[in-house]
Design a protein that fits this description.
220 residues; alpha/beta; eight-stranded parallel β-sheet; 30% helix
Length: 220
């Protein structure tokens, strides 16, 4: 049984076959469905809203891992706090009152996550590390799928894992952006607990087999 979790991002799925492709990642052993929500303001792209998650109701048993790359996320938290949602992650850069936003997520009965863009330093989370269930390190600049992994993210993951250990925290470390079978083991070795993979999973000829391959990685 793998200790780490895989959260394929449906941003890269074929939306005309979304239910079928989600069934394939479930068959392959995926742990979560990563839902990338973009508003065209915080990031230069628009994706989808809560209606897409609702469309999967009854088609999957996998929990949702919601990543809000949007301005004013507090206005939309209730929409994404669906029955099947496990995590709701907001961006530090988008939240003026981050502690309040994290408390709001938890008040909805969901696990609270915070994400950092590549240029945002870890020190900006120092006051909330005891209030989060998950920290999401962006290993690409958010806004588009299919980008290349930024190598500097590995050191950031290692430093975050060290902060977790030093502080006695129990948050999970998630990594999103350019994760492939070629670099996933290195990302996990740096301290990641959850891998987000989009095109690396959904562009495969056999999506179930590719999902299973991610789950069988040998991590030192």
């Amino acid at each position: 049984m793998s200790m780490y979790k895989l959260a394929p991002s449906i941003l890269s799925a074929d939306f005309s076959r979304l239910g079928a492709e989600v069934a394939l990642i479930e068959q392959g052993g995926a742990d979560l469905i990563h839902v990338d929500v973009m508003d065209g303001h915080f990031v230069p792209n628009i994706t989808f809203g809560a209606a897409v998650m609702k469309s999967l109701d009854g088609h999957t048993k996998l929990p949702y891992d919601v990543h809000l790359m949007i301005e004013e996320p507090d206005r939309y938290l209730e929409d994404f706090a669906a029955a099947g949602t496990e995590f709701i992650t907001v961006h530090q850069e988008a939240c003026i009152h981050l502690d309040r936003t994290l408390s709001h997520i938890r008040s909805l009965g969901k696990k609270a996550g915070v994400s950092l863009n590549p240029a945002t330093p870890l020190c900006l989370l120092s006051e909330v590390l005891s209030a989060v269930d998950l920290v999401l390190i962006m290993s690409v600049n958010p806004g588009f799928g299919g980008q290349k992994f930024i190598p500097a993210a590995l050191d950031k993951i290692r430093r975050l894992a060290a902060l977790r250990k030093e502080g006695g925290h129990d948050f999970l470390i998630e990594v999103d952006g350019g994760v492939t079978l070629a670099n996933a083991a290195e990302v996990l070795a740096a301290g990641a607990d959850i891998l987000v993979a989009g095109s690396a999973v959904f562009s495969a000829d056999d999506i179930a087999a590719r999902t299973a391959a991610f789950k069988k990685l040998d991590v030192k």
